[in-house]
Design brief:
By secondary structure, the chain is α/β, with parallel strands linked by helices. The chain has 10 helices and 12 strands. It is globular. The relative contact order is 0.17. The structure holds pyridoxal-5'-phosphate. Pyridoxal-5'-phosphate binds next to helix 3 and helix 4.
Length: about 350
């Protein structure tokens, strides 16, 4: 990376703090010959669940599988409808289609970008709220609907909804440890969380070929496990997560100040802790701003350039006006633990020049 380019996410600052510890642990895994479903994975499941205040954590191969296995564990299938936001990462939708259920897309809130316009029917088997960009979805309103909730917390590890961590609300909650997430590993990883003992057992069977007694599957299942190396990466990173989140929040506050009146900045609903997985600016001149940033050596990214039902694979007729507007106007700018005020000033100057 060139010295002056400002990346969207710079992991090197995190790695400096934990790398030696992780590498020593990985050497022990190699010497011990035990890579899958071992003691580190189990310890990390317990530590992650305790961090969220949930009874069970089930380590999985990635966050998409976490969503898929959650739907399977709740027996969601053909004839069922699942409500999810029209504006999210594609995984949230693809798993609904994979289990044979019908995705029903709801529009989003113009302030939090989380699912808002939820209208359940008799066929609604589950609702899949996404804590998008690190801001909690409105769980109070969703819980009142009395329909099983599957939280997609892939972007919200550490976020708090009125005193309770996200991913401690749903029947099942799902997260991803993809390297760029707030809690990321050195490859793919994911986890389901639940307070329900029977669901936890189902999820453990679903991730490991459908058996408890080896080679005697009692249901058709999957191979989806978090491996020991990834658990060894995640354990020390979880211990640092709150400090790193504080750093993201401090950087976000600086942007809020510097960008006031320049572009739209993220809003935080009362009682919520936003963990700024992404810092999204909003402007009708989005593409011009992105171009100006690129010229100034600053990375930015469009999340997401289309609604889900506006893509070829998931096409549905309908109108989701807020989601459609955000697909045109939102841009992610660099935010990460360790970003400096000087770097942020450079980002802001390029944005100012582009919109004025
Ligand atoms: C990253 C992400 C996922 C999927 O996680 P993977 O580990 O990449 O499979 C699901 N939902 C959302 C909202 C995400 O951001």
């Amino acid at each position: 990376m060139s010295a002056d380019r400002i990346p969207l996410l710079d992991l090197s600052i995190q790695h400096r703090e934990v790398r030696a510890e992780i590498e020593a642990e990985i050497a022990k895994i190699v010497d011990g010959n035990h890579f899958i479903l071992g003691p580190r994975g189990k310890a990390f499941e317990e530590e992650a669940a305790a961090y969220l205040g949930v009874k069970h954590g089930i380590g999985l191969a990635n966050g998409t599988d976490a969503l898929l296995l959650a739907l399977r564990a709740l027996n969601v299938g053909p004839g069922d409808e699942v409500i999810l936001p029209a504006f999210t990462f594609v995984s949230t939708a693809e798993v609904v289609v994979h289990v044979g259920a019908t995705p029903v897309y709801a529009d989003i809130d113009p302030d939090t970008y989380c699912v808002a316009d939820v209208k359940p029917t008799a066929k609604t088997k589950a609702i899949l709220p996404v804590h998008l960009f690190g801001h909690p979805a409105d769980m109070d309103r969703l819980e009142k609907l009395g329909i099983p909730l599957i939280e997609d917390g892939a972007q919200s590890f550490g976020a708090i909804h009125k005193g309770k961590k996200t991913m401690s609300f749903g029947r099942i909650a799902c997260t991803s440890f993809f390297p760029s997430k707030n809690l990321g590993c050195w490859g793919d990883g994911g986890m389901c969380f639940t307070n329900d003992d029977a669901l936890a057992k189902d999820l453990r069977v679903l991730r490991n070929h459908g058996w408890e007694k080896k080679y005697f599957p009692y249901r058709v299942a999957y191979n989806s496990r978090l491996d020991e190396v990834q658990a060894a990466v995640l354990r020390p990173k979880l211990r640092k997560l709150d400090a790193w989140t504080d750093d993201r929040i401090a950087a976000a506050k600086r942007y809020d100040e510097m960008l006031k009146g320049v572009v739209g900045t993220p809003k935080v609903a009362p009682g919520m802790k936003h963990v700024y997985h992404m810092y999204m600016i909003r402007t009708p001149k989005r593409d011009a701003v992105a171009e100006a940033l690129a010229k100034a050596g600053v990375d930015s990214a469009v999340y997401y350039p289309s609604t889900i039902p506006g893509t070829d694979a998931f096409r549905q007729k309908g109108s989701w006006p807020v989601a459609e507007t955000m697909a045109r106007e939102l841009l992610a700018i660099p935010v990460f633990p360790g970003i400096t005020p000087a770097q942020q000033e450079r980002v802001v100057r390029a944005i100012q020049a582009a919109v004025s």
